[in-house]
Model the fold of this input.
Amino acid sequence: MYKYDEIDQQIVDERVAQYRDQVRRYLAGELSEDEFRPLRLQNGLYIQRHAPMLRIAVPYGMLSSKQLRKLGDIAQKYDRSYGHFSTRQNLQLNWPKLEDTPDILAELATVQMHAIQTSGNCIRNITTDQFVGIAPDEVIDPRAMAEIIRQWSTFHPEFALLPRKFKIAVSGTKQDRAIVQAHDIGLEFYTDNNNNVAVKVWVGGGLGRTPILGSVIREHLDWQHALTYCEAIIRVYNLHGRRDNMYKARIKILTKALGINEFRNQVEAEWTHLKDGPNTITEAELARVAKHFDPMPYENLSAHDASFDAAIASNPAFAAWVKRCVHVHKQPGYRAVTLSLKPHGQAPGDITSEQMWAVADLADEFSFGELRSSHEQNLILADVKLADLYKLWEKARAQGLATPNIGLLTDIICCPGGDFCSLANAKSIPIAQAIQMQFDDLDYLHDIGDIELNISGCMNACGHHHVGHIGILGVDKDGSEWYQVSIGGKQGNDASLGSVIGRAFSAEEMPGVIQKLIEVYIQQRTPEERFIDTVRRIGAPPFKAHVYAKNEVAA
Amino acid sequence: MSNLVKIENGVAALANDDWTLVKLPEAQTEERIQAGKVVLFKLTGESTITEEQIANTVIPATGKIIVPLSVFVERNAELESRIANGEVGVWLATHELLEYLIQQQADLNVLPIIAVFVERFADGRIFSIGTLLRTRYGFKNELRAFGDVLRDQLFFLKRSGFTSFMVRQDRSAQEAIASLNDFSKPYQGAVDEPQPVFKRYNRGV
Ligand code: SF4
Done:
């Protein structure tokens, strides 16, 4: 992964000093609440229900064991010995003290980490696919470009105070796993007809209150121009995006209002001035950064391992875990492993300090000392030998990190919701927990198969509920908490937004509602058909009919 | 001493302000959201300046003045000789369009100063406006930020081409100067340093 040189280190060190002084001025009364807000937000600090929440950047989800160990230490020293992985692949601390945050950032800087632009109206953390660099269907490893974009966007002076937050995702696979269409800018890297690396540029996607999938603004862009083209897009947005209403301030509103063609014309006009300018990326810079992402020193292994095959045959629990949590790898004899942060009955994405240290040890022992966080809020060891899987499983299981539910109904994506977030309409974590308990039967879960259930506590859609096969949204009705259910959302190349099935439900009703949706699926599915495919084939009415039937009888 | 910070020959210091800022009178009529550039104004939701406001703006008879963009354009004939003498600068608000200025005044370097008014700290349009004035329209003279200007914008303003900063009256301009040096080696190319870090330093291979 990318390692800082002196220049990178100096920037994070100077940031700590700058932020320390901002906090000092705030505590001394030299900065008002309103003036301090944009400053602290750009450093990932929210003021939440109970305490501040600090969001630490994990650029494109890559972490070293050393960094994770430090995060475990920080959570223990400054928080309640746990952290929460978010859908932006970042780590959040829910209980730090404002006064401690400069020290936390100073500690992070010692392991090449920071909280820069993890929040606020600026360019946020660049995200990508968690299997980047190792997926067999990968055409281009976009991490070097992600790092180059990270550096370019860090304290970009022109884009320091945008109308609203701005999210960029990159991907380089045939099957999109980075939801590029749901980002303000999505950069899809591919190899063009001349065998050059090119970018398909998506713009104006986003979830939140007005969910919109992005449009293609440019089919083909040479990679050298990725930064200047982004500058052209963001400049048009910065100048013309709405600033009078925060709910209409995302770039998607501007692209919709102007129409993609007019928006494209404005961007292209701007770009003629920026094209080939100083921020054009050089071969040398790409090569320098790409070196950090060279393939790991893999051993030459055979594609099969007898001990692994034997363990699968003799141990059904291990086999179940392998089926759900172990993923294919480019390199023969290697696999990627997802460590589930979704044990039934716990807040999705939460991890204790002890678990962080344990995962760091596992990464050192089995996976070249590196790991990744995913937008599904799990951790991934990307380079594990087939022959080591059994040993890894035993150790992960001892830490409660081997729930074999990846991609299954209980692998829920869930925002912090009303327990922590001051914007929430409703709690989301207890709903996730209740659903996990309702479906706490692994055989049944495996029978239901691949399905994605996403929960957001409000319209801001941090839990990506619009693209969940089943989406749950917390809504406020006369001051009490209700839940709106949608079905048919999907991420990926054939992304779609879910549609709401009908009136909202109370928290107690929710596990039963999900149960009913699943019953319809089980009854209607053809062999090998996933939940989402059944929904697409038969449409929402049969699901609605079953879910609301009982109510009519009762009424 | 005013609350003005000025960068001259690379050095930032407090400076006297020898310009008089000419303001528009308060709007008499209700706000009209529609304007010439219908689409853009609708989107940003800004109010437009009325003809009465422009006509009623009091322009001091002598001295160096910074006039509102609308006055500069609509009452240009009145100002002609003073412009030629280098006594007239222009200010604009962040929602106003630079094209409007350029149509009137193709060579911006006739103006000794352009000032940009930022109403709220969080309004980052000022950075794009500065960048465009410097890189697109070749403006070389004093570029000033005024309004809700606080120390934590100064670094970004400087990088976007601003050379003077009228810090908000209730804050220390002296203390704000320090923030101009918050970061010593910024990553990306911008107005003050067009080359990105990877072209300025040998970062190894
Ligand atoms: S979706 Fe709403 S409730 Fe959930 S974390 Fe985001 S803002 Fe908070």
Notes: Chain A touches chain B through 49 residues (CB under 8 Å). The domain at 6-109 of chain A is CATH 3.90.480.20 (Sulfite Reductase Hemoprotein; domain 2).
